[in-house]
Design goal:
The structure is a single chain. The N and C termini lie far apart (67 Å). Strands 5, 6, 7, 8, 10, 12, 13, 14, 15, 16 and 17 form an eleven-stranded antiparallel β-sheet that branches. This protein has a four-stranded parallel β-sheet with strand order 2-1-3-4, with helices on both faces. The protein is built from 14 helices and 17 strands. By secondary structure, it is of the alpha+beta class.
Length: 419
């Protein structure tokens, strides 16, 4: 008892050191417990992947080939470590024939997709930039009509992963998020997503999955990192200081667009073959009374609607953030924010626009279209943000490619989208 009292007396006499020691031990214990929980998640995911690898396949059936495009520079160059710890063991245990390709510089993924041989599935391990390069390289191929039918898996390893909310359930644990995304690829559930084809006057087309953004919000978002020393206030500060430099921040633009198109029936559903007697009767009816050939009717092209605008920002986006698999029309969304916006509304809206550039406020004009042409002024056009990647602004034609690519997704997430 005397020894215990002596220890308590020592702790009281050196209370500052005692408090510091308790904080260090508590933090260390919490850190170790987090590492232990992460290891349990990895073990459970590997055990589930092993069930796929232990499945018996016929001798005449080849293993499925999976090509992984990994961007080591993603997530501040932590992507390789995250992939090797959390995703690679699951893929290798699943029985897939995995080919890992690492990119060395920006834009290399486009060239790799142009040279890629036939594969059963493509897995993109990176962020928005890597994914945008992969789909651009894929859809620029000469055999894009065939190659685009290959399902794509997305392992979120980047700083910005816009399709996370669409494909997988939200999770604060990065290890769980990566392992769940990898297991979703093995389970095989897919959903079709729209693609934006963005074509300039001279360059090859660029393809995007979420949004093209041009205007004041985009310009401010590119400079937010300069105010890093303000911590959580840096976003508000960047928008506030931009209003001091120039206001109103209006941009002149000419916009031409076509209305939305009706969604065709699903091509994946094969019609059932009628019975033998029905087919014989149908052929005899065609033989005795063949149908009369009618001259083809020339359909008049839909007229383009043209408007001249002075806006704070223009964004053109797909519905991939919140897809509706049951909608009857295929359309992209054009959001125009008028230059009558007040400074306070501009600053308040800045944080929301940073999270979701495609959001259209109440004061904005929202138009549904199947295709549009964006004509910008020749001088001082600035830059576009296409899937969070910077491109030089120029006159472009943006066309929606509805349900162009199939992406692996969580089975529960697919059920929610269908219902």
């Amino acid at each position: 008892m005397a020894r215990v009292l002596k220890i308590l007396q020592t702790l009281r006499n050196h209370w500052k050191k005692s408090v510091f020691g308790v904080c260090v031990v508590s933090y260390g214990g919490h850190w170790l417990y987090g590492k232990h929980c992460d290891n349990l998640l990895r073990r459970a995911a590997c055990q589930e992947a092993l069930k796929f690898g232990q499945q018996i396949i016929p001798a005449n059936v080849q293993l499925k080939k999976a090509t992984v495009i990994l961007n080591p520079a993603a997530c501040s160059r932590k992507a390789s470590t995250l992939f090797e710890k959390n995703a690679a063991p699951i893929l290798y245990l699943s029985g897939l024939e995995v080919t890992l390709v690492k990119t060395d510089y920006e834009g290399q993924a486009k060239k790799l997709l142009d040279l890629m041989e036939q594969t059963d599935l493509i897995i993109v391990a990176g962020g928005d930039g890597t994914l945008q390069e992969v789909i651009t390289g894929l859809l620029r191929r000469a055999d894009a009509a065939t190659f685009s039918k290959i399902p794509i898996g997305f392992i979120p390893l980047g700083t910005s992963n816009t399709l996370n909310h669409t494909l997988y359930p939200d999770s604060d644990n990065k290890v769980k998020h990566i392992t769940d995304a990898t297991l979703s690829i093995l389970k095989g559930d897919t959903i079709p997503l729209d693609v934006l084809q963005i074509k300039g006057e001279t360059e090859q087309p660029v393809f995007a999955l979420t949004c093209l953004q041009w205007g004041a919000y985009r310009d401010v978002a590119a400079n937010i990192s300069k105010y890093w020393y303000l911590g959580p206030l840096k976003t508000k500060a960047a928008h506030f200081f931009s209003t001091l430099k120039e206001w109103p921040q209006s941009h002149q633009v000419s916009l031409r667009y076509l209305g939305p198109t009706a969604r065709p029936p699903d091509e994946t559903k094969e019609p059932s073959r009628p019975q033998l007697l029905t087919r014989i009767f149908h052929r005899l009816a065609l033989y005795w009374s063949p149908p009369k050939e009618e001259p083809p009717k020339e359909t008049e092209p839909e007229p383009w609607q043209e408007v001249e605008l002075s806006a704070v920002e223009v964004s053109i986006s797909t519905h991939n953030r919140n897809p509706d698999l049951r909608r009857t029309e295929d359309a992209l969304t054009i959001c125009v924010e008028p230059d009558t916006l007040s400074k306070g509304d501009f600053i308040a809206m800045g944080s929301t626009k940073l999270t979701d550039p495609s959001i259209c406020p109440e004061s904005g004009v929202c138009v549904q279209a199947s295709s549009c042409q964006l004509n910008l002024p020749k001088d001082g056009a600035g830059f576009y943000s296409i899937d969070n990647e910077e491109y030089e602004a120029m006159p472009v034609e943006v066309t929606l490619l509805p349900r162009k690519l199939n992406f692996f997704c969580d089975s529960g997430r697919k059920h929610d989208l269908l219902n």
